[in-house]
């Protein structure tokens, strides 16, 4: 085997000394690079020397990304920044992005805390049954199934409501940060099963008045008090009140229905006749009677002046009938005695032959009319009675006598205040002596004895005017407080009212009712009064004294009698509970009120008037003066037309001394006080 030789070709060779020389590096470019690096180093050193450290603390449960505007060198949570303002933006998954501004000052180390607000969590609620109302923190947000409801992170109150199920409540902890949470809830039924049957079966079942099926049946009835009724034709309704509790089933068993009563519709001529059934009173005609079926009942219809009607009635189950009974009238004898004898008598509109006679009339109601010129006509009704003669006596009165008789014994103001009528001129004390004897303990110099006569009829309010009543005239009025105790309750007597304000209230109420004003006013100031007016006013001092003191033929010394102190609670005075307010108290006396009491808290006096001489003192109409002892009797005195001070009568809640509690005690003033109120008066004619 022969081998072919391999030829080796020579490579080119150039002597080292003959190789081409390299191009030299320019020295100028090298220097530029060096200068640039040096400048960069200087700038970096300047930055490092002038920069300050800012730590950015981010509060979040996920990694946060922080970006800072401008030149900033990050080192973990720290950034090197030159002094100045920088915009900082922080983002994290599940949180709202936050952009804020930070100011870097000359301090070497500074920090800023960033609190990220988490995104709402997403809540889904499913319930059995579906369709329940979902209420979160008191607000209805929808019905189940509810998907991805956004809720802020933290605790929330959940409530489910559905008409036929018990409400559910629970506390939720929402994670937030767009985390989905799901609830699956099963609601407990709010009903119970009620089973019942009837004999006979097939009765209609009514639940709270609404049809609910037929017997036998098992009903699902909501909890609570329910009215259950069974109805079947020709049978009486059966009903029962059920107290149903959720999930507590009831078995009412079998109800035996009773045959329905028959109905008898009964009327009579005349109507309003009395009816008895089997001896039991049923009422007056017209009426409907319920009769037990298939048996006879005793029916009686009767009315005074008519013959009694009796019969027997019978109806089948659920049967009905109508009857009209005509009663037969009976006659009665009526004897008339009329004065004056020439007066005209009319019976049921027909003129009688003469006014004094005896007539027989049907024993039914008759209308009588007796008239004569110059006299007030009298109308009456009379019902004759068979076998019993009646006497009708009529005495006609003149128009003036009738007018006086027509004056009402009491009137009610437009504010609901009651005023009683008083006729002192007809009493044993029409003439009496005001004031007190010099020998009476506690008597003051202004209580001079002087005779007074009262002749005009007048009305007097049973209670003192209250805050509520006065505020209808002056809404802003405030009676104030004493040592923290209110005088301003609506049923307490109004106080802090001047005499002028009390008089203005009287005129305002008169205008409200269309009455003439008693007080003359100019620029809001009383300049006098009109004694002929029947408008509202303050009581005169004589009227007040008579109403407080007159008792039969004697004058009371105190509201409770003539001895001091009182032996029982009779009014509102400075008692043991008000010592820290008044300083002076009535020993061993406790009326239960520190300051003024609601009006009429204690019993009335001998005239039916409340708080006369207690609770609050009262303004009266009279200008203050010391009476003259000349012995001349004054009739219906009202005092001077004008003056500077006015009389105050009666004791009050802040007084306890013998001299102050006497009914003859007199005080005076013009400005409002916390222990002075007033009551209304007016003349009857």
Instruction: Estimate the mean pLDDT confidence.
Output: 90
Number of strands: 52
Helicity, in percent? under 10%
The portion of residues forming beta strands comes to: 35-45%
Radius of gyration, CA atoms, in whole angstroms: 52 Å
- Helix/strand structural class: mainly beta
Main sheet strand line-up: 3-4-1-7
| End-to-end CA span | 175 Å
Main β-sheet description: 4 strands, mixed
Number of helices: 7
Explain what the structure shows:
With 685 residues, the protein is mainly beta. Helix content is 10%, strand content 40%. It is built from 7 helices and 52 strands. The strands form 16 sheets. The protein has a 4-stranded mixed beta sheet. It has a 4-stranded antiparallel beta sheet with strand order 10-9-12-13, with no helix packed on it. A 4-stranded antiparallel beta sheet has the order 17-16-19-20, with no helix packed on it. Strand 16 (204-207) and strand 17 (210-214) form a beta hairpin. The radius of gyration is 52 Å and the shape is flat.
């Amino acid at each position: 085997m022969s081998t072919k030789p391999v030829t080796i070709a020579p490579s080119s060779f150039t002597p080292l000394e003959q190789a081409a020389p390299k191009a030299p590096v320019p020295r100028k470019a090298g220097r530029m690079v060096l200068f640039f690096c040096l400048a960069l180093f200087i700038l970096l050193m300047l930055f490092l020397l002038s920069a300050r450290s800012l730590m950015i603390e981010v509060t979040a449960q996920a990694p946060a990304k922080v970006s800072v505007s401008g030149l900033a060198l990050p080192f973990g949570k720290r950034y090197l920044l030159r002094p100045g303002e920088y915009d900082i933006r922080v983002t994290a998954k599940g949180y709202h992005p936050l952009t804020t501004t930070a100011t870097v000052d000359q301090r070497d180390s500074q920090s800023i805390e960033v609190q990220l607000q988490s995104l709402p969590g997403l809540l889904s609620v499913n319930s059995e049954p579906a369709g329940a109302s979902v209420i979160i923190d008191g607000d209805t947000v929808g019905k189940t199934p509810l998907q991805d409801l956004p809720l802020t992170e933290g605790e929330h109150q959940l409530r489910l409501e559905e008409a036929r199920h018990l409400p559910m409540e629970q506390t939720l902890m929402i994670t937030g940060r767009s985390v989905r949470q799901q609830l699956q809830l099963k609601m407990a039924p709010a009903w119970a099963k009620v089973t019942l049957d009837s004999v006979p079966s097939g009765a209609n079942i009514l639940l709270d008045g609404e049809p609910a099926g037929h017997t036998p049946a098992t009903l699902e009835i909501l909890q609570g008090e329910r009215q259950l009724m069974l109805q079947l034709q020709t049978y009486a309704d059966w009903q029962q009140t059920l107290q149903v509790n959720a999930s507590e089933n009831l078995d009412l068993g079998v109800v035996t229905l009773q045959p329905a009563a028959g109905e008898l519709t009964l009327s009579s001529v005349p109507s309003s006749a009395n009816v008895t059934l089997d001896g039991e009173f049923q009422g007056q005609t017209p009426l409907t009677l319920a009769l037990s079926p298939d048996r006879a009942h005793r029916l009686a219809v009767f009315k005074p002046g008519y013959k009694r009607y009796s019969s027997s009635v019978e109806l089948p189950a659920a049967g009905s009938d109508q009857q009209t009974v005509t009663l037969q009238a009976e006659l009665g004898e009526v004897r008339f005695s009329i004065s004056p004898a020439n007066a005209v008598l009319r019976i049921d509109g027909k003129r009688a032959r003469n006014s004094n006679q005896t007539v027989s009339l049907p024993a039914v109601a008759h209308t009588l009319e007796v008239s004569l010129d110059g006299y007030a006509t009298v109308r009456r009704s009379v019902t004759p009675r068979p076998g019993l003669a009646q006497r009708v006596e009529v005495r006609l009165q003149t128009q003036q006598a009738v007018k006086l008789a027509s004056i009402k014994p009491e009137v009610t103001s437009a504010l609901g205040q009651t005023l009683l009528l008083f006729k002192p001129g007809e009493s044993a004390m029409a003439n009496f002596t005001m004031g007190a004897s010099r020998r009476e303990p506690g008597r003051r110099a202004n209580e001079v004895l002087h005779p007074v006569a009262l002749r005009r009829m007048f009305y007097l309010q049973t209670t003192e005017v209250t805050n509520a009543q006065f505020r209808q005239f002056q809404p802003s009025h405030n009676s104030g407080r004493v040592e923290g105790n209110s005088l301003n309750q609506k049923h307490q007597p109004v106080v802090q009212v001047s005499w002028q304000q009390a008089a203005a209230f009287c005129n305002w109420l008169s205008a409200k009712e269309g009455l003439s004003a008693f007080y003359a006013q100019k620029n809001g100031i009383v300049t006098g009064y009109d004694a002929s007016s029947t408008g509202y006013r303050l009581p005169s001092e004589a009227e007040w004294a008579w109403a407080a003191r007159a008792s039969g033929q004697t004058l009371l010394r105190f509201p409770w009698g003539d001895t001091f102190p009182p032996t029982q609670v009779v009014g509102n005075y400075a008692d043991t509970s008000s010592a820290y307010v008044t300083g002076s108290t009535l020993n061993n006396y406790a009326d239960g009120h520190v300051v003024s009491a609601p009006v009429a808290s204690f019993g009335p006096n001998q005239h039916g008037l409340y708080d006369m001489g207690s609770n609050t003192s009262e303004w009266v109409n009279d200008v203050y003066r010391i009476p003259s002892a000349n012995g001349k009797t004054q009739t219906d005195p009202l005092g001077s037309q004008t003056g500077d001070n006015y009389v105050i009568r009666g004791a009050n809640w802040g007084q306890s001394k013998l001299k102050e509690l006497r009914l003859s005690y007199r005080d005076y003033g013009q400005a409002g006080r916390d222990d002075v109120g007033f009551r209304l008066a007016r003349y009857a004619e």
